[in-house]
């Protein structure tokens, strides 16, 4: 599923959450953060607000965009665990965020996320070309 939202001076935050009763694994990945039409040449800082391993709320800046020098940032599918809030901490935007949301349904309790990640890593390794020695 695709995700998209826009942060502006009037809408400074967007929260993505899932139903807590849902027994599925949810992954949210942030792909691109970019300034859109109407942006001023000012620093626009986008923060991600989530929870750490001790369930404490933390805010981490993920992008600092400026129209004249860096209007777009590729976050290479930066993975997050919902619920998560995106906030325009500085600037007036508009800043557009795009990404995707993956739902992995658990058929039974034997589902292990590590197994899924291991299988994905094996597929990635098959696509890589062999390493060649450096020429001297």
From TrEMBL:
It is found in: Nucleus, Nucleolus. It comes from Chloropsis cyanopogon. It comes from the Eukaryota. Interacts with NPM (via N-terminus). Forms a pentamer with NPM at a ratio 4:1 (NPM3/NPM). Two pentamers form a decamer. GO terms for molecular function: chromatin binding; histone binding; RNA binding. Its main location: nucleus. The lineage of its organism: Eukaryota, Metazoa, Chordata, Craniata, Vertebrata. InterPro entries: Nucleoplasmin, Nucleoplasmin_core_dom, Nucleoplasmin_core_dom_sf. Keywords: Acetylation, Chaperone, Methylation, Nucleus, Phosphoprotein. Plays a role in the regulation of diverse cellular processes such as ribosome biogenesis, chromatin remodeling or protein chaperoning. Modulates the histone chaperone function and the RNA-binding activity of nucleolar phosphoprotein B23/NPM. Efficiently mediates chromatin remodeling when included in a pentamer containing NPM3 and NPM. One of its GO terms (biological process) is chromatin remodeling. GO terms for cellular component: cytoplasm; nucleolus; nucleoplasm. The keyword Nucleus applies. Belongs to the nucleoplasmin family. Residues 112-128 have a biased composition (Acidic residues). Residues 112-136 are annotated as: Disordered. PANTHER family: NUCLEOPLASMIN, NUCLEOPLASMIN-3. This is Nucleoplasmin-3. It holds the Pfam family Nucleoplasmin. The keyword Methyltransferase does not apply. Residues 3-102 form the Nucleoplasmin core domain.
